[in-house]
Amino acid sequence: xxxxxxxxxxxxxxxxxxxxxxxxxxxxxxxxxxxxxxxxxxxxxxxxxxxxxxxxxxxxxxxxxxxxxxxxxxxxxxxxxxxxxxxxxxxxxxxxxxxxxxxxxxxxxxxxxxxxxxxxxxxxxxxxxxxxxxxxxxxxxxxxxxxxxxxxxxxxxxxxxxxxxxxxxxxxxxxxxxxxxxxxxxxxxxxxxxxxxxxxxxxxxxxxxxxxxxxxxxxxxxxxxxxxxxxxxxxxxxxxxxxxxxxxxxxxxxxxxxxxxxxxxxxxxxxxxxxxxxxxxxxxxxxxxxxxxxxxxxxxxxxxxxxxxxxx
Amino acid sequence: xxxxxxxxxxxxxxxxxxxxxxxxxxxxxxxxxxxxxxxxxxxxxxxxxxxxxxxxxxxxxxxxxxxxxxxxxxxxxxxxxxxxxxxxxxxxxxxxxxxxxxxxxxxxxxxxxxxxxxxxxxxxxxxxxxxxxxxxxxxxxxxxxxxxxxxxxxxxxxxxxxxxxxxxxxxxxxxxxxxxxxxxxxxxxxxxxxxxxxxxxxxxxxxxxxxxxxxxxxxxxxxxxxxxxxxxxxxxxxxxxxxxxxxxxxxxxxxxxxxxxxxxxxxxxxxxxxxxxxxxxxxxxxxxxxxxxxxx
Amino acid sequence: xxxxxxxxxxxxxxxxxxxxxxxxxxxxxxxxxxxxxxxxxxxxxxxxxxxxxxxxxxxxxxxxxxxxxxxxxxxxxxxxxxxxxxxxxxxxxxxxxxxxxxxxxxxxxxxxxxxxxxxxxxxxxxxxxxxxxxxxxxxxxxxxxxxxxxxxxxxxxxxxxxxxxxxxxxxxxxxxxxxxxxxxxxxxxxxxxxxxxxxxxxxxxxxxxxxxxxxxxxxxxxxxxxxxxxxxxxxxxxxxxxxxxxxxxxxxxxxxxxxxxxxxxxxxxxxxxxxxxxxxxxxxxxxxxxxxxxxxxxxxxxxxxxxxxxxxxxxxxxxxxxxxxxxxxxxxxxxxxxxxxxxxxxxxxxxxxxxxxxxxxxxxxxxxxxxxxxxxxxxxxxxxxxxxxxxxxxxxxxxxxxxxxxxxxxxxxxxxxxxxxxxxxxxxxxxxxx
Lengths: 312, 296, 434
Known about the structure:
The complex is a heterotrimer of chains A (about 300), B (about 300) and C (about 425).
Chain A: H1 2-6, H2 21-56, E1 59-60, E2 68-69, H3 73-77, H4 82-114, H5 120-132, H6 135-146, H7 152-159, H8 167-170, H9 175-200, H10 204-212, H11 218-228, H12 230-245, H13 249-254, H14 266-276, H15 280-306
Helix pairs in contact in A: 2-15, 4-5, 4-9, 4-12, 4-14, 5-9, 9-12, 12-15, 14-15
Chain B: H1 6-18, H2 24-55, H3 77-85, H4 88-119, H5 125-135, H6 140-154, H7 160-164, H8 171-182, H9 187-194, H10 199-210, H11 212-227, H12 231-236, H13 245-250, H14 260-286
Chain C: H1 6-26, E1 43-49, H2 55-69, E2 73-79, H3 82-94, E3 101-105, H4 109-113, H5 122-127, H6 136-141, E4 143-144, E5 147-148, E6 151-157, E7 159-163, H7 164-169, H8 181-191, H9 217-223, H10 241-255, H11 266-274, E8 280-283, H12 288-293, E9 298-301, E10 312-321, H13 327-340, H14 343-353, H15 373-378, E11 383-385, H16 393-409, H17 415-432
Parallel strand pairs in C: 1-2, 1-3, 10-11
Antiparallel strand pairs in C: 3-10, 4-5, 6-10, 7-8, 7-9
C-alpha cells in the first residue's frame, strides 16, 4: 500500500547518466545569477546588521555612547540571570505547547475544509482571516472580549455559570495559556492554507484506489494522506517552531510579559533589555543564544523529515 | 491501477450497493460537519465581528455594562470622522505603494533564489540555505538599530527606496518557495533541460506557472505583513508625508484615552484591501489550481 | 594660472560681501556652520512627542497658532505613540537625526539626561521672567543632578472620582466622599457588592490599577509616610515599616476584601469606573469627558488623606532639548516653550485638553467653561512625583516595584517578605546608578 502511494508515474526515459562539466558549470552560473539580487539585498540589509549584532553581543552598548568591549561576559552572565532563565523556560513552554497544537489543528481544519461540506468557503475564510488582521488592533478587541468584569465572553460564560475572578490575562496562571490561544488563533489559518494546497495536490484516484482496497476514513488518512503531506508537515513544523520560539507581538500588546514576568519570552526580554534598560549588547547576546536554540531545533527537524520526504 | 483486481473490485462494489445502509448517515454527517464549521467560524471571527459592530456604535455605548455585541444605536459618524482626523487617503496610498511594492519585488527575487536553491546544482548550495534559515531566526529588535544606522549612512531615511529595498527579498519567502519547488515533479523541467532550454526559460515558463498557488499565498503573506507593519515605516520615515496606515491608526490610541469608535472604523477600512486580496486567492484554491502537473 | 579681471574680482567681492551681510542680517546663529535656515530666515525646528488620542487636536492647534503668529521659527511636529517614540528616540539621536525638541514624561528625564542626551535648560528659567509663574512642583520635577533639563509641557495631579448614584444606592451620602483612610476603607467595603454570592463582586468599591498605569498605588504608600524611593532618589523606602504597613492594609482589602479587582491595568481601571462597575477611582483629568458622556453623576475630591497627611501624585510631561541641536534651534525651541507656557496659550490648552494649566496665575473664572479643570491643579502643593531623581526609572518600576506589588496582590507572599526583598533589589539598582 505505502509503496504504491509513493511510486507515481515516471514517464522520464533514460536520461544522460553523466552530467557533463559544461552542464554543471552552466547550472552554477545560472544559480548565482538567479540568486544575485537576493544575495545583494540580504547581504547589505540583513547579513551586515546581523554581523553588527554579533559584534555588539560582545560589548556593552547603550546606543548613545561607543560600544565597550566585554569579551564573553554577556554570554557568561546569562545562565546566572534569573530573568534569562525565566524567559527561556517560558519560551520553551510556549513553543512546546503552541507548535503541536497549531500544526495539529491546521491539519485537522484543512482535512475538514477540503471535503464537500456546507459552509466550506466560509470556514476557510474565517480560519484564515485572523492571519491578515493587524495584531495591535485585534489585541484591543481581545482585551474587551476577555475582560473579566465587562467583557462579552466573560458575560456570556457568566450567564451559564462559569465565572472567573481575575480573567485570563490578569491571572498569573492563565495568562500564558491565554497568550498561547491568541497565538494559535492568529496563525493557524496560514498553516491550514499550506496543508490545503498539499491536500489538493494529492490525486483523487489514489483515494479511489485506496477505497477499493478497503481503506477509507481514518485508515486512508493514516496511510495515504499523512505520508503524502510529509513535505507540508516539515514546512509547517519548522515555520511554526521558529515563529513560536520568537513569540513577541501578542505578548507585547496583551500582557507586556506580565503578570510579574510570567509571560515574558526571550524576545520580550530582548526588547526590554534593549529599549527599556539600554543594554543592547546584552540583548544581542540573548538573541544569538535564541538563534542557536532555533537552529539546533530546525536542523533536527530537517534531518527527521528528510528521511520521510516525498519526492517525485 | 484502476483496472487491477477487476473481479474483486466489482465484488466489493456489489456488496456495497446491495447493503441496506440508508443514505441518512451521510446526510447527518454533512449536517453535523456543517454545524462544526459554523461554530469554528464564529469562534475565529468573533474579534473581527466585534470590531466591525463596535465601529457602528456611538462612543458612549462601547465601554458599558452589560456588554452587548450588537449596537443599540447605529451610527456612521466614526467612518466619516476618520477622514477629518487623519489624512486617511494619503496614508492609504502610501501603504498600497509600500506593501504592494515590497510584495511584487519580493515575489520575483524570492522565487528566483528559491529556484536556484531547489533545482540547480552548485557548490555551496547547502551553506546558502542554512544561511537563509539563520536569517529567519534572529529577532528584528536586535538588527533594527544597526539597520537604521546603515540607512542613515546611505541617506536613505525619509525615502521610498529606503522603505522598500531592505525588504525587497525575504528569508521567509525564499525558504517557503524552496520547499514548494522541491515538491514539484521534476519531469517537465528535466525534459526541457534535455531539449536544451536555458534555466531562466524553465523557471519562467515551466516552474512559475505551476507555483501560482504558492506565489499567491506568499504574496498575501508579504502584503499583509507589510500592510500591518507599524514600526519599520515609522523608523525609516520621520516625515508625515510618507506615513502608512498603522501609524495613522495609532494616533487614535492615546496614552490614557483610546478613541475606540474611530479606531475600529479606521481599522475596518484599513482591512479591506487585505481581505479582498485574500478572497481573490481563496477562489483559486477552491477551484483546485494546485495541480502540480500530474500529467500522464 | 588664470587671473581674474578686475571686473570679475569686483563682482566676486560684492557677492561675498552681500552674502556675509545677508548672514549677519539674519542674526539667528552664532555658529556659521549650522545656520540651516530657509531663505527667508525662518529656523525650522523638529518637535517629537507622544500626544496621540484626543489631546492631539489641542496640541496641534497650539503649534499651528505659534507657526502662524510669527515667521522666525517654524515648528515641525511629529506625534507617535509613546512606546514608538522611545524606540525611535535612541537610534535617531545616535545617528544625528534626533528631534530638536521633545516632550517626554519628567520621570524619564534622568535616564536621558544622565547619558548626555539632553541640554540643560537653566538658562531658559533665568532668561524668561514669565517662567516664575510656572507651578513649582512641575518645574522641580524636571530637574536632575541640580540642573533643570525640562520645562513643563503639561501637569496634573490625580484626584478621587466617585459615583454619586452608587453612593446613594449603598446608603452613603452622595455629597460626602471619603476624607481619610478610615472612611475610604469602610466606604469601599460598603460599596463592594456580591449579590449572587459567587465570590466575585458585581460591583467594586474601588478601581485601582497595579501595572501599565499612571502611578496609583504609590499614593497609598505615601499616605502612610512611606514610599518607593526617597525624594532625593538615593534610598529605597520599600522596606520601611510604614510602607509595608500601608501595602499590607490595602492589599488585604483588595485581595481578600475584593474591593477592587486584582491585576488591573490603567485602561482596565478606567473602563471599570466608566461602565459603572466601580464606585471610586483615583485618576487624572483625561477621563472627565468619557465619564460625563457615559452619564455618570460623578464628583471630584482630593485623594483621602492617610495618617501622614494629604498627598497625591503629580505627573508632568516636560519639554526637553536635544544636546546635539544647534544653538539656533535651541533658542527657537525656547521661543516655542515660552509661547506654550504664556497665559493665553495655557488657558486654551487647559480648556482644550482638560489638563490644569502649568501656571499658578490662571483663575477658576478663566477656566469656567470646564468646571473640572480646577480640581486637578488645586492640590499641586501636596503632589509628589513618582520616582523623582531616579536614574533607572523603568528598571525600578518594571522589574522591582510592580512585580512585588502584583505578587502581593496575588497572594504570593506577605508584604514584609515581598517588599523587604524588593527593597534590597531596588537599593542595589540605586546604588549602581551614578
